[in-house]
Amino acid sequence: MSVAARDPRPLTGEPLSLDLLNTRWMHEGVIQDLLTDTDGLAVWLAANALEFTADEATLRHALTARDALRATVDGSLTDGSLAEGAGRVDAVLAHGRIRATLTAEGPGEEAEFRDPSWGPAWLAARDYLELLDTAPDRVRRCAHESCVLHFFDTSRNGTRRWCSMASCGNRAKASRHYARTREG
C-alpha cells in the first residue's frame, strides 16, 4: 500500500495551500492533525506528489505555513488578523523565489529555495497567492458549524457551501429535517 493510500483525511485533492490547511480536521467532535510527526508529513507530501524529505525541519516549516495560511484564510479585516496572517505568509514566501527559465517547450518557471526544507511550505504559500489571483471569492471554509475544512469552489455558479455534500451537507440537511419534524 502506498503512503498516499493511507491518508486518513476526509477531504483531499484541493489545491496545495488548502490541502495543507486540511491536514487538520474534525472527527467525532475532536480535532485530528495529520502533521503531528514526520510520518504524517510523509503522507501529505506523497498525497501532493512533493518530492521533499519528510524531516523535522520540513515539518516545522510546513506547520509555520499552515498557521500563516489559516490566519489569512480565516482572518478578518476588522480585527486585524488578516494583515497579521498576510505578514506571516510573506515571511514564508521570503524563503524561496521563482526563476524564469527557457525550456525546449518554451518559457517556464522553476521554484528555488535557499533551504530545501522550506520547499513544501513555500509552494503552499505560493499556491495561495495563485488562488487569490484566480478567484479569491472561491476560497471557502465549509459552511457546517463544526467543520474546519477549506475548499476551492469549482462549481459552475460558485455556490458550493460544503466541503462534501455527502458528509457536511447531508448532516445539515438532516438537522434541518429533524428540527422541522420536532416543530410539527
Search tags:
184 residues; alpha+beta; two-stranded antiparallel sheet; 6 helices; 45% helix; globular
How would you portray this structure in words?
It is built from six helices and six strands, in the order H-E-E-H-H-H-E-E-H-E-E-H. The mean pLDDT is 89. Strands 1-2 form a two-stranded antiparallel ribbon. It is globular. The protein is an alpha+beta fold and 184 residues long.
Helix content: 40-55%
Overall structural class, as computed from helix and strand content, comes to alpha+beta
Mean pLDDT: 89
Morphology: globular
Oligomeric description of these chains: single chain
Poorly predicted sequence stretches spanning 5 or more consecutive residues: none
Q: Report Rg.
A: 18 Å
Output the strand order for the largest sheet: 1-2
Topology pattern, helix = H, strand = E: HEEHHHEEHEEH
Terminal Cα span: 51 Å
Biggest sheet details: 2 strands, antiparallel
Quantity of strands, as a count: 6
Helix count, DSSP H or I runs of 4 or more residues: 6
Beta-strand content estimate: 15-25%
